[in-house]
Specification:
This protein has 14 helices and 19 strands. The radius of gyration is 21 Å and the shape is globular. It has two domains: about 1-55 and about 380-435, Urease, subunit C, domain 1; about 60-365, Metal-dependent hydrolases (TIM Barrel). The strands form four sheets. Strands 1, 2, 3, 4, 5, 16, 17, 18 and 19 form a nine-stranded mixed sheet that branches. The protein is of the alpha/beta class. It starts with a strand and ends in a 7-residue tail after the last strand. Bound molecules: N-carbamoyl-L-aspartate (NCD) and zinc ion (2 copies). One zinc ion binds near residues 156 and 182.
Length: about 450
Amino acid sequence: MRTLIKNGRILDPASGHDAVGDLWLDAGRVQAITPPGAKRPEPGDEIFEAQGLAVAPGLVDLHVHLREPGEEYKETIASGTRAAAAGGITSLACMPNTDPPVDNLAMVDLIFSKARQQGVVNVYPVACITKGRRGEELAEMGELQAAGVKAVSDDGNPVSSPMLMRSALQYAGMLDLLVINHAEERSLSGKGVAHGGFTAAKLGLSGVPRSALEVMISRDVILAEETGSRIHIPHVSTAGAVRIIREAKQRGVRVTAETAPHYLVLTDECLADYNSNVRVNPPIAEASDREALLAGLADGTLDAVATDHAPHSRREKDMEFVLAAPGISGLETSLSLVLTAVTATGRLSLLETLRRLTSNPARILKVPKGTLAAGADADVVIFDAEGEREIRAAEFVSQSNNTPFDGRRVKGRVLATLVAGRVIHADPAFAVRRSGGLPAGGV
Ligand code: NCD
Ligand code: ZN
Ligand code: ZN
């Protein structure tokens, strides 16, 4: 079946295209982008009127915790991928800190098959760097890569031993696997629960120094430089980390990096009311850090924004700040927070903002996604970039609504998400824009 998305502002960062036009999809793939009205639809074509809306490749999220298997009460592959769809995300990499962890072939196969049966977006399982995420012995990377894994990470845990990390980079390099190391030097972060600045000190919360993140990133950059392998730095949250990555890139180190929406919006002042929903790893730092992250995103030091969607149930969050589990449920607020923090403030054009949410993460993961090129999979997001909305945690599709953004007014609303040409999420307000298609019961 053919689908026409009409009169939208079509943005395709991969090709630099940004103009009003018609997007044609056929048999699950992008067929063409044509000037508005240049080509007429035929009977049976499904039509979406996208006038006044943005039409872009579905977002690619490099960092998601789906919690299945083991913590299905927080999230499942089914609920997490539906939440992704509601956020305009059509491809995601899911982290292996499940129970049991994804450190072997059988577990990778399990994630792939569950995703195929119950997932609605493309799922790329990230496998462990070390067996059991224990940081003692490397996982069977060759086997994992052969099973279709694109990246490895012990996320939640760092690989603390420099020697082991060096071997991980050597093996991963030979297999062209991306290594994502949770950047945290545990001897520095210790029992800290919040950014170790003035606010935490005032509130009596134990602090995590910026060096906990930055020492580990420095080490990883040095090891990536020496081995010539690729390293990806997750959840970058401080100004110093941006500087280290910028300098490494200038030297030609094969380093890429992501930050998360919450670091672009919040500062540690949000700790003031001890809201456990702002407890996250690494902790949210200061206004000067947020400023540096925005600058790093603008100049390309930070390649991507990834949600680090970390769903936790009320059981882990409705308690004292120091006892609450770290993490933010982020799939459904990512696009809006980024549009509000980055695009609306004039720091980046809409096209450049979308590059960091689509083609850049796809390039880092080496998957053929994040583009509207003819022949590409028809993964598309249609959204209102200008309209305002209020975030309502109670309406999350995710099973967990641990967000510090409940009630916040933001820009941007996802109206429809398509994967392989099929609508997998549609806002009720979008129904009036849909017409044509096969009659009910048709073939
Ligand atoms: C993550 C989780 O809950 O799995 N939590 C977090 O605060 N970011 C782990 C992680 O990303 O390191
Ligand atoms: Zn992490
Ligand atoms: Zn994570």
